[in-house]
Q: What sequence folds into this?
């Protein structure tokens, strides 16, 4: 009983060892190639469980997910002959397993070095045709898009690598040119600010002149309308007075005399020297005719 159990355990162990050496799994995220006596016989092994012959077959697996290449800082010359310190990175993944293995032998470090050389050349060409302002802000996105597209086409053919994206993390000026560039940019900003102030003052003067003109026009129109209304009022008042006078001239004269008496003798301290038979006192010295 003990011997049969031992044989069973040995048999199970042998089966496990054989299965371990004859079976292999390719994950969904992996890319793999099969080598027969060192020669590649299958460049595109699909995901799943596969069988190999120990001692004959060798399987090489590579990570098929997106990888990050953090390139070292490099100096590039712009169209203005100014050097810029550029720190960039790239995102890439295996596009064609066969081309990738032929170009790099499946070594990720080798793939990064080859790709970094091509990125360096592409950035140098892109920066060499643009000014500092364009690469910093004006055409930065366009530069990255063009570089990614052109480098992707080359890398797919030569390295079997798909370049997903290339981005510039930081752009710095070398210390020896930073001060001169800063002074030039500061001068440009001051000139632009002065131009904006001059334009603003010109607009202000125009607005103020137009407001003054409108004020004069409005006041003139208001004065004209007031004079017209005042003239119409005076004319109506004169017409009313004339109608009233024509109806009873004697009573009108009497009323005016009474108002003159009130205005003249409205204070006890008032003194008036005039002849009693003056026309001023005619309504005080004679009586009105009897009403018929």
A:
């Amino acid at each position: 009983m003990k011997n049969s159990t031992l044989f069973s355990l040995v048999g199970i162990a042998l089966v496990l060892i054989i299965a371990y050496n004859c079976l292999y799994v390719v994950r969904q995220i992996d890319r793999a190639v099969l080598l027969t006596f060192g020669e590649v016989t299958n460049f595109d092994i699909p995901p799943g469980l596969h069988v190999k012959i120990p001692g004959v077959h060798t399987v090489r697996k590579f990570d098929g997910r997106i990888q990050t290449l953090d390139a070292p800082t490099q100096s590039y010359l712009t169209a203005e002959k100014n050097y810029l310190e550029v720190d960039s990175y790239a995102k890439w993944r295996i596009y064609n397993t066969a081309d990738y293995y032929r170009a790099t032998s499946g070594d990720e470090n080798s793939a990064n070095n080859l790709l970094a050389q091509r990125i360096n050349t592409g950035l140098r060409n892109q920066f060499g045709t643009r000014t500092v302002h364009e690469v910093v802000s004006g055409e930065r996105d366009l530069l990255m898009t063009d570089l990614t597209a052109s480098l992707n086409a080359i890398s797919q053919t030569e390295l079997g690598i798909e370049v997903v994206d290339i981005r510039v993390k930081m752009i710095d000026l070398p210390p020896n040119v930073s001060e001169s560039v800063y002074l030039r940019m500061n001068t440009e900003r001051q000139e632009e600010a002065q131009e904006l102030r001059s334009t603003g003052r010109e607009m202000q003067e125009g607005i103020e002149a137009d407001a003054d003109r409108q004020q004069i026009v409005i006041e003139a129109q208001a004065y004209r309308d007031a004079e017209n209304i005042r003239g119409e009022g005076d004319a109506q008042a004169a017409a009313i007075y004339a109608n009233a006078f024509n109806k009873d001239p004697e009573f009108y004269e009497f009323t005016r005399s009474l108002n003159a008496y009130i205005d003249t003798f409205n204070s006890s301290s008032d003194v008036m020297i005039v002849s009693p038979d003056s026309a001023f006192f005619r309504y005080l010295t004679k009586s009105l005719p009897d009403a018929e």
